[in-house]
Amino acid sequence: MGGSYRVRLDQVDPVAGLGPEDGWVGMTVQFLVDRAGAGSQHMVFGRARFAPGGSEHQWHRHPGAEEFALIVRGEGIVLDGDDEIPVTAGDVVFHPKGAWHGFRNTSATEEAEMIWGWGGAASKAEAGYELRHPSGER
Question: 24-131 is classed in which CATH architecture?
């Protein structure tokens, strides 16, 4: 046996406990490949869906992981440092370790979907997670 891991999107439950108090507003997140599910040692591969009408993953950073995201469906704004960058399906973004970032669905009628990954960490705990203060303090 080669030790490979296979899973279907519809077989993975959304991650529990990710709520607005921690910057996860109106979104559903699945960890498709990580240490807990697949035995990954150095990465997480996931899917996020953002409901229409202003759902977002607020400004945050991961001191222990780089992050990439592919916008699969819909449109939105990538929060990058202090900038806001419009994106649509087909765009790919990359955030270095420790960079402030996030995403906001700008469509009032269409769900946005992204496939994302962390490099250098195989769990949320290893990646670290720091929410940017509402006042913009760091």
Answer: Sandwich (2.60)
Alpha carbon distance 76, 85 (integer Å): 8
What pLDDT score was predicted for residue 138? Answer: 44
135 or 72, higher pLDDT: 72
Q: Which helix (H) or strand (E) holds 38?
A: helix 35-38
Joined together, the tokens standing for residue 27 give 């979104």
Going from N- to C-terminal start, the domains of the chain cover 24-131
- Average pLDDT of the residues in 52-79: 96
Q: What is the model's pTM? A: 0.89
Give which of 64, 59, 65, 97 is closest to 80, Cα–Cα.
Answer: 59
In terms of average pLDDT, the best of 12-16, 41-45, 133-137 is 41-45
Distance between CA 37 and CA 7 in Å, rounded? 9
